[in-house]
Amino acid sequence: MDKNRNNERTMAGSDVIVEAFTDLAPRYEDAMDRELHELWGLSYKDFIHRLIEEVPVESSGVILDVATGTAQIPVTMASRMVPGSAAIGLDITPAMLKGGVANIQASGLNPRVKLVCASAMDMPFAESVFDVVTCGLGMHHMDVPRVLGEIRRMLKEGGQLIIACVSAPSLWRSPLASTLIRMATLLYSRTHGSIRAQAEAAAVPNLRTAAEWRTMLSGFGFAAIETVATFPARRLWYPNALILRAIKSTF
Ligand SMILES: C[S@@+](CC[C@H](N)C(=O)[O-])C[C@H]1O[C@@H](n2cnc3c(N)ncnc32)[C@H](O)[C@@H]1O
Questions:
Q1: Which residues line ligand 1 (CB under 6 A)?
Q2: Residue 135: left (phi > 0), alpha (psi -120 to 50), or beta?
């Protein structure tokens, strides 16, 4: 199992993440819509729907959405879930969850969606409690082996993991390419006063290819690993996105 944290690729500390997403929270969904159009030519709403297509909402169960942001994933899932199901969204940034509370109230799905403020690296849930865990575009900000260990612990045997991840060719992590990418992003962050750019720059070494994701997931005891969607970058120097599905199996 790839649990050696010393080997983990660097990313921003949680204080930078929380500051970045607190700053972005009031305009988060509009910003995502613009960014997703620019990167992959799809709207934020289409992205959420594409991810949810993979979630078995027709069977009842408890679903956890990790790094839920403004809770668009659990809210949209809850509108399709069968009676008896529930969705929980977890995020580390209170300001993002405040947007989530507003989205839940506006949806009228109040009792079926709950929000929890915590780090995905140490989640406050018991073992084997979730039927499905989802995560949309949040993994690159986190210590992936630690989060996968947590997800494995909390999923029931046979439970599904569905993640949308930002992905990039391994070339991006060559010393020269990653230095150039980080310099360009940090320059942008300084000139535009954007702490978000700083958080994204720190996440570049944490982007994985589909093959690397498969290796990582199988090392954590996931089976039937599939890349169910790929969103190719609109420009050579943009990252791609992937949606992966996997099932928790016995080692
Ligand atoms: C790009 S947003 C994605 C939000 C949501 N999944 C969506 O699709 O709109 C990334 C989210 O990851 C959250 N995040 C980053 N690191 C986290 C951590 N360690 N634990 C929990 N949430 C984290 C941020 O607060 C932010 O809300």
A1: 14, 17, 21, 32, 67-69, 72-73, 91-93, 96, 119-121, 136-138, 141-142
A2: beta
Note down pLDDT in tens along the chain; length 251 residues: 333 333 445 577 888 999 999 999 999 999 999 999 999 999 999 999 999 999 998 888 999 999 999 999 999 999 999 999 999 999 999 999 999 999 999 999 888 999 999 999 999 999 999 999 999 999 999 999 999 999 999 999 999 999 999 998 777 778 888 788 778 777 777 776 678 888 887 888 889 999 999 999 999 999 999 999 999 999 988 899 999 999 999 87
Provide the 3-class DSSP secondary structure of residue 71.
coil
A 10 A CB-CB count for 108 gives 10
**Distance (Å, whole) CA 80 – CA 210:** 29
- Residue owning the nearest CA to atom 15 of ligand 1: 141
In whole angstroms, give the CA distance from residue 185 to residue 16: 15
To test the pocket of ligand 1, the residue of 5, 11, 24, 68 to mutate (highest count of ligand atoms within 8 Å of its CB) is: 68
Nearest atom in ligand 1 to 25's CA: 27
How many angstroms does the Cα of residue 228 sit away from the middle of ligand 1?
Answer: 21
Q: What is the Cα–Cα distance from 45 to 67, expressed in whole angstroms? A: 17
Q: How many CB atoms lie within 10 A of CB 237?
A: 11
E strands, 71-221, where? 86-91, 113-117, 130-136, 155-167
pTM, 2 dp:
0.92
